[in-house]
Design brief:
The structure is a homodimer. The first copy, chain A, is of the alpha/beta class. Helix content of chain A is 42%, strand content 22%. Chain A has two domains: 172 residues, Rossmann fold; 153 residues, Dihydrodipicolinate Reductase, domain 2 (2-Layer Sandwich). Chain A has twelve helices and 13 strands. In chain A, helix 1 runs antiparallel to helix 2 and helix 4 runs parallel beside helix 5. The longest helix of chain A has 21 residues.
């Protein structure tokens, strides 16, 4: 399976690392031969039709920040979308940053790959939150595979779990914590009694919250994931604008203290059901599956025969997100074998 | 898929109910036609090669407690294992009670079905805890399918989850709460400050603990599940006698109170790894995935690429356990289609 990897930030580098660690296992176990033939970041591209050396790619990126400095064979100034015309590949791994305003460059990259009859695996949320059905239909029209486990919950394998592990049951709703940064902030406010402002600052220093934390703290990231779960698992046709969103920036330490006294915690909860599509701070019971701390993500599926089943996992992280991408690659590879 | 169902207690009746509820969906979605052609309990059997009426079976069982009173067509005195010679079937659902001393009647039923080239789905733990490898090898020799999701954690789909959802990762250990009764008792002792003895009595009145609670409170049930997970998920060749077992009957309310003050809970934890095969009461952190209350089961898988992933679900319940059996049936049916 010849891979074209576009986006070489934390996720893209995680993919290179995961492939380097696992390609022998995957070859032995599934008879799938993973080979990265092209990688691009904002500096340009590295291309080698025989396969790029993952370790060298990572090494160069960490030294010069430019994948185009990869010098073994063909490093070039070819940018993002042009790369798709410059290499022979079977599957695009699309790991560019999420843009919830336009869904770009993810959307254009994905549709171009589809048009070329290539499979696509993505970690991006923007184009899915804005154009889910359009993109899924294009994949069907072109008879290609499109997978996006990594777009929701990083290493919490909610999409494959729902589809692969629970075939006997009908999933009625999903309620969960889909953003690790806000869960970290609320957990720290609860354990330390600290204010929202101070805790946000602490999270930024720790590298958990971004310099501009809007996407996380205002619930935008969780809302994108809500759209993806609604469409892909519950078959609810919706887009980003259909989600009611309230973030955590108005949560005071007093509110948390009050909840705590009654045996509750405040969490930023996403609810995905026919009746409700929303992201908002809510009270959850201590010692319930919702009461997970730190940057963990969780999702509880209400299913007809088995009541509630919950999955919990790291919501972010370079290698964790890459593991979800690798699972998608393996599942595509199995179909082709 | 013609089903022979042996054992018509809570699990067996759950299977009849689940099939009755879901057979149309399963036919439509997977093109698998589920039909129960024989059922036996201790009273004898009900047989109809054209398919038994699930609702009538449940009705009669609830009225007379004897499946052999099913009168439409052939109700008989044929007992358990003889039934396998008396019907044409494709898959045995083996739902007899667990016996950790002999593994019977599960073992004999299973091996007889294998010898007849039939697939088997089980909810039983005894024969797996005692003879895991022997039974797996017999299934392989006879080239039949053998599934046992329901034997561990009821509706917590840990086995299918590990195999189906996480193909990219290597699972290094499993740590979890595998017994719902003891989790209920410890949770109540924690919330109420009550003694072990009183809480056990309360659990018996509620029908959560059995009249003879030994299997649960002494960790025997959790140890059987530990063997099953060790063999099936981690590939550790072990049997029941290899597990270090300590139950919860010595846990005092004082110990729980002490732990609570430091932010910990006491849970009966099963640990499954190359280095440790044990069931024992242990301290777990509040607000961690281990801190689930009531009769919930949970298991945290430590995996190489994705750190820790946790699944939580109802550990018992008639329909919940049946949902796991139904998932196994569907997965077998998909292979045959």
């Amino acid at each position: 399976m010849r891979i074209c990897l576009i986006g070489f930030g934390a996720v893209g580098q995680g993919v290179a690392k995961a492939i380097s660690l696992k390609k022998k296992d995957i070859k032995d176990k599934f008879n799938i031969d993973l080979k990265i033939v092209g990688v691009s970041d904002s500096s340009g591209s590295a291309i080698n039709q025989e396969g790029l050396d993952e370790k060298l790619l990572l090494d160069i990126k960490s030294k010069t920040c430019k994948v185009s400095d990869y010098s073994e064979y063909g490093s070039t100034n070819i940018q993002g979308i042009e790369l798709l015309d410059s290499v022979d590949y079977d599957c695009l791994i699309e790991a560019t940053p999420t843009d919830v305003k336009t869904g770009e460059p993810a959307k254009s990259l994905t549709l171009k790959a589809f048009a070329g009859k290539k499979d696509v695996v993505t970690s991006n949320k923007g184009h899915l939150a804005l154009f889910f059905n359009e993109i899924i239909n294009k994949a069907k029209e072109n008879d290609v595979e499109f997978r996006f486990e990594a777009s929701v919950g990083g290493a919490m394998p909610i999409i494959n779990f729902s589809k692969k592990t629970l075939p006997s049951s009908k999933i009625e709703s999903i309620i969960g914590i889909l953003n690790g940064t806000t869960n970290f902030i609320l957990s720290r406010m609860t354990s330390e009694g600290s204010s929202y402002k101070d805790t946000l600052k602490e999270s930024q220093i720790l590298g958990i919250a971004e310099t501009d934390p809007t996407q996380d703290v205002e619930g935008i990231d969780a809302a994108c994931k809500t759209v993806i779960l609604a469409n892909s698992i519950l078959g609810i046709d919706c887009v980003y604008d259909d989600i009611d969103i309230e973030g955590i920036s108005n949560i005071s330490s007093e509110a948390i203290e009050l909840a705590k006294k009654e045996g509750y915690l405040i969490k930023l909860i996403a609810e995905v059901s026919k009746y409700n599509l929303k992201v908002a701070p809510r009270l959850v019971k201590k010692n319930s599956p919702y009461a997970v701390d730190g940057t963990l993500n969780m999702a509880t599926l209400k299913i007809d025969l088995a009541d509630k089943v919950t999955v919990v996992g790291k919501g972010a992280g370079s290698l964790e997100t890459a593991s979800a991408i690798l699972t998608d690659l393996i599942n595509i590879g199995k179909l082709k074998n």
